[in-house]
Amino acid sequence: MQYVYSFGSGSADGKAQMKNLLGGKGANLAEMNHLGIPAPPGFTITTDVCTYYYKNDLIFPEDLKNQIEDALKNIESIMNSSFGDKKNPLLLSVRSGARQSMPGMMDLVFHVGLNNNTIPGLITKTGTHRVVQDAY
Predict the structure, then answer these.
(1) What is the value of pTM for the model shown?
(2) Strand order in the sheet with 42-45
């Protein structure tokens, strides 16, 4: 079963009509790519994962980890950087979503992948030390 839907560089696994499976944000990001609207690459973990998790004693689907790793490799390829790389780090942001809008459900999480090992590479990549101040 497919639990992870990738999007980026003008292509997407999902579409707008898949809102129940991808959530509103995931479906709209997929559709933006189909329409050629610039959007950063990413992936959506389906709402089926949540259903599976609660129906199976809080265990994630077996294929989920591999699908996430493949989706991350796709983002790395598009962005020409690598998650956790000390010289050319890829940073991610995480957004929550649901089949129906749930305001206030979760704050956005930015700078996933920023740590003491990747900060020097980010400074070199961006040419600024300001990023270090903003990250803490």
Answers:
(1) 0.86
(2) 11-12, 4-8, 42-45
